[in-house]
Amino acid sequence: MTQPDTGATDPLHELLRKGARDLIAKAVEAELSTFLEQYADKTLEDGRRVVVRNGYLPERTVQTGIGDVEIKVPRVRDRSGDGVTFSSALLPPYLKRARSIEELIPWLYLKGLHRRLPGGPVGPAG
Fold first, then answer.
1. Which family does it belong to (predicted)?
2. Nearest residue to 57 via CA among 36, 71, 78
3. Which residue of 10, 76, 77, 126 lies most exposed, with the fewest beta carbons within 10 A?
4. pLDDT at 116
């Protein structure tokens, strides 16, 4: 039995992944806006804000229930040198797999699905 071709893309699946990526991006942007508002009144002697947006961290991939989703988390620059950093509550720095996947895998294993997948162990489900 051969593995399904993962190179082919299902248009609906791609649409869902794009929607997830856009939704995550909007949520993280809202988090960042709230974070920056906390420092809006802090300025340097020349009038510039102390904490400002500074591009994005390198793009990374998170496994979700609809497949891998590429995400970009914004970063901030602390001009004062106090070490202020932005860390998203939605996307912690080392998140690789969405919680829903982590909860689903053990459940599928207990239900014996791993025995029915191509390349899975063979034996009575039980």
1. Belongs to the transposase mutator family.
2. 71
3. 126
4. 53
Helix (H/G/I), strand (E/B), else coil: 78: strand
Which residue type occupies 121? P
What local confidence, expressed as pLDDT, does residue 77 receive? 95
Residue type, 102: E
CA distance 19 to 3: 27
- Cα–Cα distance between 96 and 100 in angstroms, integer? 12
The string of DSSP letters for 10-75 reads -HHHHHHHHHHHHHHHHHHHHHHHHHHHHTTT-B-TTS-BSEEEEEEPPPEEEEETTEEEEE--EE
Query: CB-based contacts of 41: which residues, under 8 Å, 6+ apart?
Result: none
The neighbour count for residue 126, using CB atoms within 10 Å, is 5
pLDDT above 50: residue 122: no
pLDDT confidence bin for 123, thresholds 50/70/90: very low
